[in-house]
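Need a sequence for this fold. Nothing fancy.
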């Protein structure tokens, strides 16, 4: 008898774990439906974004070669002595300058599209986020809802 109770209790716990999202008795299906909707909306929206770069300018001239100097000196020092702290600092600093330069010279544009497509993309994203937020709220159990209706 005790084994049956334990077995039933174990099934009930696993069902509750599947139903609960975020530690609440929220909707498991609503969460994944919202996640899929938000994912599709985000993909469609980001697919319309075009990223381009412009030339690096520093005091009127091209500065890309200048940003390579610290990293190249650091790499040279590391090949001479792999434990050189100054070599590591120059290499990491030079790499950071290059990454910062790439990010600062990026131009991001939203490609022209119809209003319908834009509303569809943003609507999917907003509805998905709404479903995810709704699934994290506690939901009343079916038996409690039936008792309230009678």
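Here you go.
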């Amino acid at each position: 008898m005790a084994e049956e109770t334990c077995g039933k209790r174990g099934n009930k716990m696993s069902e509750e774990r599947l139903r609960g999202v975020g530690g609440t008795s929220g909707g498991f299906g609503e969460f994944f439906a919202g996640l899929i909707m938000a994912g599709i909306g985000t993909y469609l929206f980001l697919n319309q974004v075009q990223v381009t770069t412009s030339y690096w300018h520093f005091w009127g001239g091209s500065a890309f070669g200048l940003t390579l100097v610290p990293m190249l000196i650091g790499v040279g020092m590391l090949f001479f002595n792999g434990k050189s702290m100054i070599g590591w600092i120059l290499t990491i600093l030079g790499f950071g300058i290059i990454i910062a330069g790439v990010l600062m010279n990026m131009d991001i544009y939203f490609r022209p599209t119809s209003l319908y497509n834009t509303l569809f993309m943003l609507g999917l994203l907003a509805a998905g986020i709404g479903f995810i937020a709704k699934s994290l709220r506690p939901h009343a159990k079916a038996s409690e809802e039936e008792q309230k209706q009678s």
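For context: The CA atoms of residues 68 and 94 lie 7 Å apart.
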